[in-house]
Amino acid sequence: MQFADQYSIVTDQITDLSKLTLEHSTIDTSLYAKYDVKRGLRDLDGHGVLTGLTEISEVWGRQKDENGEEHEVDGILRYRGYDIQDLIMGHPANDNFAFEEATYLLLFGELPNAQQFAEFKELLAKYRALPTNFVRDIIMKAPSRDMMNTLARSVLTLYSYDHRDDDTSIDNVLRQCLELIALFPQLAVYGYQTYKYYHDGDSFFIHAPKAEYSAAENILHMLRADSQFTKAEARALDVALVLHAEHGGGNNSTFTTHVVTSSGTDTYSAIAAALGSLKGPKHGGANIKNVQMFEDIKANVKDWTSDEEISAYLLKILNKEAFDGAGLIYGIGHAIYTKSDPRAQMLKSAVRALAEEKGRLDEYELRERVARLAPDVIASKRHMYKNICANVDFYSGFAYEMLGLPVELFTPLFACARISGWSAHRLEELINAGKIIRPAYMNICEHQEYIPMDNREITREDIKRQVKKEFFNLVDEREAERDKSRKELRDKVKDKIKERL
Ligand SMILES: CC(C)(COP(=O)(O)OP(=O)(O)OC[C@H]1O[C@@H](n2cnc3c(N)ncnc32)[C@H](O)[C@@H]1OP(=O)(O)O)[C@@H](O)C(=O)NCCC(=O)NCCS
Prior knowledge:
Blueprint: H1 3-8, H2 12-25, H3 30-34, E1 57-64, E2 70-79, E3 82-83, H4 84-90, H5 98-108, H6 114-127, H7 134-139, H8 147-158, H9 170-200, H10 215-223, H11 231-244, H12 252-261, H13 267-279, H14 286-300, H15 307-318, H16 342-357, H17 361-381, H18 392-402, H19 410-431, H20 460-500
Antiparallel strand pairs: 1-2, 2-3
Helix pairs in contact: 5-11, 5-19, 6-9, 8-9, 8-13, 9-10, 9-19, 10-11, 11-16, 11-18, 11-19, 12-13, 12-19, 13-19, 14-18, 15-17, 16-17, 16-18
Bound molecules: coenzyme A (COA).
């Protein structure tokens, strides 16, 4: 048996122990209401608990009118006060550096003039250099199936190459953040190339990044064997990077950045933690799940134009009877947005154009049906206190797929963008020297008196487990003996043959 197989086995002993963990860790849900616990740091109407102030961005799904009454609105996202739509539409369409412009804005709080922007792009190009042999020594070692884990490992290892690793002064942290922003596309793409080589036996190639390329262009250049891409492809990816670059201080991975930064730790540890958060299927991992879910829907819904059949299948997904059994319709819903997610709205038109170009309009229309029907299906089964809509991940995975980007890179691409937002928030947390983030958890466990080992009860279950263990040990011993005597017999036969020949 391979080590990995043995290491990954959940034995009966582990299953029994996990039953104990479950028994002693399951909390009566009514207690949350009793003690007014803000689960998920949200109040009962879904509003986030106010835990900080930020100047980096704002996200709205509801707004108050002049009478103080709150209404659901089309989603609003602003970076440093600028509407996301203006940032994308305002940037020249034939230039694929909108993400770099947004990054400058997020980090420094104002739009760069031509001179400042040229210098900033040069700085990023300079930082696009990995330590010598980093690909061979780190990325190619023990390749993971998940590029987010590979990315996090690379980030953590960069600490060892930094002579000012633990220095949390603002200029040093800014330097570290700029390096990470510049390096993320390489770390992600090279991690993927390694994975393809080891897991799929594909040819291995490493294209060095080009100084004159933007992040979007470099991703396409490094990913493709022939390095070719069109302006339109780079533009679509550039827009996707801008849309994913930042999303307020409360989103799970950015809040993680605040929490971990507030302990005073180094940049690499804080960003690795944020990557771990982003990987989750309820957060950045939803774009992969969404594409997989659509494969499942396409295979199981016969008539893609039938609202009834689609709704019935969505209900099955929600009831954990179909797809991955998690009960989630991926790409739908958001903690803040209600009527619409502005990022999804911006991507949607690009996705429609791509679908038309690639002859996949029927799939686009199926998606539109799911986006329309899913909120009602969810509302029929879950307690809703607001409208929900398709979120950015409903369209990003499909867009990446049509651009020929591999599914393994969907969430890492999100990370290549969000590193800009995480960086801005880490700096903001440090600059404002916040207190260590340390909310409260109420203990509801009864106090116990310590019982010496000899006085503890041995249960029937313990005895059964012990007997079972002894039985299986005996079976193992017998099997080992049998294998040994078979081997001895085989050796004897071999010797006999040798004698006679
Ligand atoms: C994003 C998400 C985690 C937000 O969760 P949330 O803030 O709890 O959302 P809401 O408060 O509006 O949800 C109310 C209820 O509907 C459920 N719900 C919301 N969206 C859902 C979805 N897409 N599928 C199934 N159930 C969903 C929630 O789990 C919650 O149920 P509960 O009270 O039994 O826990 C949630 O919508 C989700 O899991 N979506 C699917 C994953 C996804 O697309 N993530 C990417 C986000 S950009």
